[in-house]
Every structure is written in C-alpha cells, then in structure tokens.
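Notebook, bench 3.
Goal today: get a predicted structure for Glycosyltransferase 61 catalytic domain-containing protein from Oryza glumipatula so we can plan the truncation constructs. The sequence was checked against the plasmid map this morning, with no discrepancies at the termini. Length recorded as 530 residues. Pasting the sequence as submitted so the record is complete.
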Amino acid sequence: MSSTAYTRPSKPPGPAGERRPPRLAKELGRIEPKKLGIGLVAGCCLALLTYISFARLFAIYSPVFESTSLVMKNAPPASTQQNPVLAQQQSKAEDEKDVGEDETDRKVPSFAETTEKNEEEETVTKPCRSFIHTGDEAEATISCDENGVDEGFPYARPPVCELTGDIRISPKEKTMFFVNPSSAGAFDGNGEKKIRPYARKDDFLLPGVVEVIIKSVSSPAIAPACTRTHNVPAVVFSVAGYTDNFFHDNTDVMIPLFLTTSHLAGEVQFLITNFKPWWVHKFTPLLKKLSNYGVINFDKDGEVHCFRRGHLGLYRDRDLIISPHPTRNPRNYSMVDYNRFLRRAFGLPRDSPAVLGDKTGAKPKMLMIERKGTRKLLNLHDVAALCEDLGFAVTVAEAGADVRGFAEKVNAADVLLAVHGAGLTNQIFLPTGAVLVQIVPWGKMDWMATNFYGQPARDMRLRYVEYYVSEEETTLKDKYPRDHYVFKDPMAIHAQGWPALAEIVMKQDVMVNVTRFKPFLLKALDELQE
Ligand SMILES: *[C@@H]1O[C@H](CO)[C@@H](O)[C@H](O)[C@H]1NC(C)=O
Ligand SMILES: *[C@@H]1O[C@H](CO)[C@@H](O)[C@H](O)[C@H]1NC(C)=O
C-alpha cells in the first residue's frame, strides 16, 4: 500500500482540456494528494509534511545540484571560456546587434512603456534639481520588506529596501548614505541597516554575497559629497550565488530584475555587486533592455553616486513563477510578460506556435535538449526517430554559453523535450501556447518536477506533458537490486538529504521505453492542434 504513494505510475495522459488551473503551488496540500492517488486523510497529512520539508531542503541546496561547485567562486565556468579573439568578435557583433535593436525598440512603444506612468516615475525622471545642496527638499522615506514568508519556499522572500530622498552611494565604502533628518525607518544603534542583496534568501549562499550598508545620517554635511548625480533611480543587487546555472540566472537575477525595474522603461541605473564580467557580458542584451545606462561595477567604482530614489535588493517570487502581490508585484506582471520581454530583448520572432493542419502542411518542430553529463537520455536517437515517425521535424541541441543562439533555436520550436534539469529553463523562450515535455527520472521527483518546471510551464501558458520513468527505464536498476529502498521506498533517499539525492537520483541516466512513451508524444501533438 505504501508503495502507491512512492511509485507514480505513468499513465497514458487523459483527455485534453484536463489541465490544472494555475497557482497550484500555494495549495500543495490540497492538490498533491490527489496527484499521489490516495484519498486517505492520513496520506494527505503525510504528503503535506513531506512537501514542506522538501522545500526546506531546497531552500538550503540548489535545486540544480551541478551549480553548487560554482558557489562563491567568481571565475568563469568552463562553459563560458572560449577563444579570446573569437569571444571579442562575437561580443562586438552582439553589441552592434543590440544597438540596432534598441533603436527600433524605442520607436515602438515597448511592453514596459505601456504601463501607466505613475507619480513616482515622474518625480524620478524630472531633471535633477538642487536637492544636493538643500538635501531636505524631498522627504526622506525608506520602506523595507525583510520578513516576508512564502510557506514552503523560504528562499523566495529576500530582503528589499526602497528609499527616496537624498541617497549617496559610495561603492568604495559599500554604503548607501541616506540623508534622513527625521530618522525615518528602523536602523541599528549605529544608524545602519545591512543587507546582502542577492535575490535568493539562502543561508548557504549569503556569506558569499557582498554586504551593503544603508547608513542613515542626520544631515547632508555628514554624507560624502556627490561626484556623480543621476536623474534616474538606482538599483543595487548582487550576481553572486548560483549564477551561471541558467535556472538560477533567471530565478535569482533576471526575473527579479524584471519584476523590480521593468516599469521604469529603461530609466534606471544598475549597480552590481559580486561583479562577474563574463556574467554581465552574457546577459548584456537583457540588461540593456531593462536599463538605458551602462552598469556600474559596485566592487570597483570609486565615485559617490547621488540619486533621489534607490532600491537595495530585488523583489522575487518563486522559481520561474510570478504571482500578483500588492507590494512586491503591484503591476501584476506574469511569466507571460517576462517571456515577451525576453523575445523583444533577443529579437525572437515567434509569439505563438505554428498553425498545423492540412492547409499549411507545416510539420510541428520539436527541439530535444541533450544532456551530456548526468541524466542523459541514453536512447535519444530512438526517441528522435519515433518523433520523426509521428510527424515532428526534430532538432537535437545542447544549451551552451550563447544564450541568444539557443534562445533562437527554442523559439523556433513548437515542442521542447528534455529530461529534468536546468536545460528545461529554456522553456522561457518558447512561443506562448507551445508544448513542454518533461521526462522525470526515477526517485519520487514530483515536487521538483512540478515546482521547478511543470507549474512554471502552466504559468507561461505553455501546454505541459510530463512523463515519469518506470524502474525499468533508469540506470539505477544496474546499480541497485529491485528490493533496495531506491526502488521500494524512494522517499527514504529524500529523507537522507541533498547529498544522497545528488548522488543517487540526480546521477542516473534514463532509457525511455518508446512503446510506453508514444502516447505522451501523441498528447503533445494533440495539444498543438487544439
Ligand atoms: C492586480 O491584481 C489584483 C488582484 O489580484 C487587482 O485587485 C489589482 O487591481 C491588479 N492591479 C493592476 C495594476 O492591474
Ligand atoms: C514497454 O512498455 C510497454 C507498454 O507499457 C510494455 O508492455 C513493455 O513490456 C515495455 N517494455 C519493456 C522492455 O519494459
């Protein structure tokens, strides 16, 4: 009986239109037991507890374990190391492309500009007046969101402070001086507030994040003199942590940055701590789309930058999921908005998948993401052949350092298929309405499969098909006898914590039974024709 809860037999998918409504994640307790196929009340409670403890586990460890080796190291990973001459040429070409795009973009009202301008923005974009001399002309305000809780996702509420008034940022001193004659806000005995501005509240990572101080001073005379004055708001954030894992590049930096600044339509100055030149270079097309000004390296800069408005830290939500929130997401941005932003930034042409059918004669395009390290699809060529037989035009590719290049490949596809892993993050480049197929390896990975990729797909208004491999389809069967707890009780692996999960579950390869898999591909095809 207990094995029912642990083995999730992959059934041929039910009829179309059965898709679950979005926002499932916050109702784990209600939905998940249904998924497990047990109606027992005890089962419900057990499931809920288990899922909450999973969340704790992933608050501490990265959901994508390969990245842990990169933590706290600023060196570029192997994937971005390339021939320097080539890299230079490429970067030049990219820069030229960016400039061209930016110009066209500015003529067309961009998505961000369609947001109604509010009073705040108007104050911000007004030419800088003599506030530096008078200091108290603008009322000093500070509001911090530091103790938010998202049950089950503790890392999803990093601290953020918003300031208005006379703000003087001195990167050399790692300090934002805040002229605060009326002593607004809560500061410690030294008039300071310290924040590590990485948008993932994860105790394991935070020691590696530069700590930035907001220092409340009673008069402008005590603050350092401005050497540069900006007419737009400042946003100070870190790119430390798990960046360069593509999942985390998005969940911990780019989506939070989009959420925090997209309404400013480029009129914002970024100051980046834990500055990694290769990372900034890699994401330049997106950074340029969000800010009309070159980024400031907070680790090296020697100026005192003055602003009338500033953010320390970024708002974020769950992983590849953005929900409306009165203060953290007051403009109700969704992942669909983020997808559109990416398409504009990279110049991706397709907003919706191909129209299929007799009239067009078009073949649906499938992109299979190949993993060459762990969780390989061993019979990828058989699966590709089956897909071709079913009428797909198949491309196989591996994601690499060239984000734009891969984004173009993904955007050209109608169906994206991959085994569970960071590569599935590339679903953000699919046209709205396309299909994501996730192959979930053995080991009771429902929580991860759902929260990291399945629910996000629904949030992005993609169609989603998931395939859970059976014990016959995993290489774990070559390592463990069938009566081992790896097969009889996979939850026991989770109970041992991340190291066991990383060593056992994350390192398997899969060999899909094409007979069993076929109905899922047919379902993907059906979804496209709906
Ligand atoms: C955002 O959504 C909430 C409901 O979730 C709604 O009350 C509010 O008016 C929306 N705000 C905007 C700016 O659309
Ligand atoms: C493959 O799946 C089919 C359908 O579920 C099943 O009948 C068959 O035994 C499986 N083949 C192997 C080798 O497990």
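Confidence is low (pLDDT under 50) at residues 1-136. The chain has two domains: 98-334, 365-529.
Flagging this for group meeting.
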